[in-house]
Design a protein that fits this description.
Order of helices and strands: HHHHH
Number of helices: 5
Distance between the termini: 73 Å
Largest sheet: none
Helix content: 55-70%
Strand content: under 5%
Radius of gyration: 32 Å
Number of strands: 0
Length: 171
């Protein structure tokens, strides 16, 4: 029997759902992601990557990809995008270094020939001599640093820095 007129004995009182804090996520399932591998790059990301690898600044690369500078900066902070960018940039630098190395001995011969050519003004010969000695010093420094880095990476159990983080880079 009800104690007063407002209380009904027929049905229990329904409670309102508990209030959710702003930081809590709703109990709604997230929308499914588009059908692509989790680390695959979008067409826009590939366009931005291509522009960046050509030496374009971030603003122009963003325009080339029809996106904003802010979005491109956000992509550059994403591990997979940043890793692909680093690997691709390293490959470009490696290719350029290979071309330079292929032609380095000819360049050295030209510098030495100019340095030894008595018909050239002293200033030209001096500049060639400085170029030869500077190249030799830098080569030794780079070679020494590369050996030190390789030794440190080996001691730390790290992979070669030019290897991709994953063998399955998808474009």
């Amino acid at each position: 029997m009800p104690r007063n007129d407002t209380e009904k004995s027929e049905s229990p009182k329904k409670r309102a759902p508990p209030r959710r804090k702003a930081s809590e996520k709703p109990d709604v399932a997230p929308e499914p992601e588009p059908e692509q591998a989790p680390d695959a790059l979008t067409v826009q990301q590939l366009l931005a990557l291509a522009a960046l690898l050509k030496g374009t600044n971030v603003s122009n690369a963003a325009k080339a990809a029809s996106t904003s500078r802010e979005t491109l900066h956000r992509w550059l902070k994403q591990p997979h995008f940043a890793a692909v960018f680093r690997v691709e940039r390293a490959q470009i630098v490696e290719q350029a270094a290979s071309v330079i190395q292929t032609n380095a001995s000819e360049a050295a011969r030209v510098m030495v020939a100019v340095m030894k050519d008595k018909s050239q003004p002293a200033s030209v010969r001096l500049r060639a001599a400085l170029a030869v000695s500077d190249a030799a010093i830098r080569w030794r420094e780079v070679d020494s640093l590369a050996a030190d880095v390789a030794e440190l990476r080996k001691a730390l159990g790290l992979r070669d820095s030019l290897e991709p983080a994953s063998n399955k880079l998808e474009f």
